[in-house]
Amino acid sequence: VVHMDGSSVRSVLSDELAARGVLFGDLAELMVSHREVIEPHFHSAVSADADRFAAWHAAFWTGGTVLYVPRNVEIDVPLYSLIGLSQDGAAEFAHTLVILEDGAAATLLEETGCAEAETEGLHVGAVELIVGQGGRLRYVQLQNWNGKVRHFARQSGRIARDAMLQWTVGALGARVAHIHQDVHLDGRGAHAQVNGVTFATDRQLLSYYTQQSHNAADTQSDLLYKEVCRDRSRVIWRGMIRVEPEAQLTDGYQRNDALMLSP
User: Fold this and answer.
1) Please, where are the H alpha helices in 20-106?
2) pLDDT tier at 62 (50, 70, 90 boundaries)?
3) Segment 23-47 mean pLDDT
4) H or E element in which residue 16 lies
5) Contact 230/206 with Cβ under 8 angstroms?
6) Is the torsion defined by CA of 237, 81, 126, 124 positive or negative?
7) Alpha-carbon torsion 37, 23, 28, 167, what sign?
8) Residues whose CB is less than 8 angstroms from the CB of residue 57 and which lie 6 or more positions away in sequence, other chains included
């Protein structure tokens, strides 16, 4: 699935996966054609009133990527989504929604980037990852905007009983980036693994606020971020593990390693 300047320009899904009930394409289009499947999950992980950027996104979202995998369907090959900017001064409000029903499995690689190195732009996005009971989702996110784009996003995953979410982040681009990344372990035995690497150069500012919320017993979360700063760049990371009273036998871990390559 390819989006450019807020509009879907290409969407391809194999006949084999479509025959098994998989949906993969433009969110704005599938919200109309398969509304009964998509709408109950829309904004179920990212609240529209979380902050002013989330409200701005909710009011003006311009489509995005949706992946829906029915119950007990496993997709062996990775799927790919590209969100791009090509026009100078363009604003992009793409929304990514991944829904895995009980027992489903999938891998999605999503990349953000620019067609030109010098165009200025704005991205205000949201990512929602919904993993049903026993589901397994691997989501890889490569943020590679040029050095003049400003990037703001709310990103959240909800993990049901005995389900697994592996979330890998690579943050290389953007002039300014500020991301809220949350994982909610909602069912007993849920597991989340979050890995992130950032590399900031020149005068970049990359900011990540992460939270692991343990809402049920016997849940496990593991977060590791590695950050590199060069020149006059700055990287901000704020991490939190939240454990509810009913989340007994929680296993939560987080670590952040920073490497500075200049005085």
Assistant:
1) 27-33, 35-38, 52-60
2) confident
3) 96
4) helix 15-19
5) no
6) positive
7) positive
8) 48, 93, 95, 124, 125, 126, 154
